[in-house]
Amino acid sequence: MLKGASPLVFERSVEGRIAYSLPELDVPGQDLTNILEDKYIRKEKAELPEISELDLMRHYTELSNKNHGIDSGFYPLGSCTMKYNPKINEKVARMAGFASSHPLQNESSIQGSLEVVYDLQEHLKEITGMDEISLQSAAGAQGEWTALLMIKAFHDANGDSNRTKVIVPDSAHGTNPASATVAGFETVTVKSNDKGRVDIEHLKSVAGEDTAAIMLTNPNTLGLFEEDIITIRDIIHGVGGKLYYDGANLNAIMSKVRPGDMGFDAVHLNLHKTFTGPHGGGGPGSGPIGVNAELAEFLPKPLIIKKDDETYGFEYNMPKSIGRVKPYYGNFGIYLRAYTYIRSMGPDGLKHVSENAVLNANYMMRRLQGTFELPYDEHCKHEFVISGSKQKALGVRTLDIAKRLLDFNYHPPTIYFPLNVSECMMIEPTETESKETLDGFIDTMIQIAEEAENDPDIVLEAPHTTVIGRLDETLAARKPVLRYEADES
Hints:
By secondary structure, this protein is an alpha/beta fold. It is built from 15 helices and twelve strands. The protein has helices spanning 53-66, 87-93, 96-99, 111-128, 140-157, 175-182, 200-206, 229-238, 259-262, 332-368, 389-392, 398-405, 435-454, 456-460, 473-478; strands spanning 132-134, 165-169, 186-190, 211-216, 242-246, 266-268, 289-291, 303-306, 312-315, 384-387, 414-415, 424-427.
């Protein structure tokens, strides 16, 4: 076992110990051979750990304490908006009337739940400037894919099946080209100009009659607002294409400007990012789709609608719908958390969220300027990009800096992305962090930069305080060990 590592639950096992107590069987036993084929019946007992309840609880508590999460430390993961999840959200999501509901219940028995979902849709329409919303998509990437399928269906319905290309900036999120490919499109890259925005002349050269859409986030992945968004809109609409808005960076502009007002035809949102649903750990997420009136008839079905002044229900009569993209109606628990957040903040509160997120990012960027290279020296929005090029010249890579941050209980920022900035670090503090937390992280980054100059080995050999040091990342990715094998010796 590694030094400082927790024993595996199998290694805690002692014969005869149990963590449960069940009453004696008071009904006749069942002979499985009368029910299952012989090949499905276990011939030997499963090799399961034998452990007491107390030891089991201590085991999993110890493991959980080794995890890093937003409740245990700063998580400045650029482009992912890892903000605090208010605990009132959890309280609402656990209310019995919501938590005990089931998607197969009759509409009449879940009117309260349907009203909440419908009201959330109305709020998201207002926030985005879209005409219609579907909450069905399970996460952001599925939202991208869903929106692109709708755009494809729109073009096909208009006899425009030659539109086979989706334009994606070179600074785009990696899911954008992936989603376009999965949706059956060819990806065309548009370059950034020297200011980190879309190069308008290059966009003009790649946009044409085969353009189905352009995928943008605004502000972009560099944290810079696309000042030429109206020109971009006119170019794409001028060739018959659609504008798709990646909502990953919506945290910077809420109650300030809306994607619909910029000219976008479709948008996805990340309720598990911008609107404080839990993020990470495999989900669940939520990636609602908003569209303008022209695309609304292609939305996934069913839609949750208001039938009259007091009744809510499902609309299945949608002949041009692309169909269902998620079992049932999406991840209802995340809806409740987002709805609670939006209602508790209100429009003025959401505006302050964006203002504080932008303030925090600019404060950090200016304090780190000089210590690290700043590739775009202008005010940013909710996130910013710095480069470790100075440190690389001393033999210390951005990866080394990220590993060293672990020794100070900070989750590293996103590194080596976007790809158009060498030795990139993308940092997003969000609005929920205090000045003291920001200063602590900044001071640590400056200390690591000084170590890179004066004592590089301490950075190159980091992390020093974690259970596991540096892994062979290639081997771990290609030959992971995912199952326990008992030591027969």
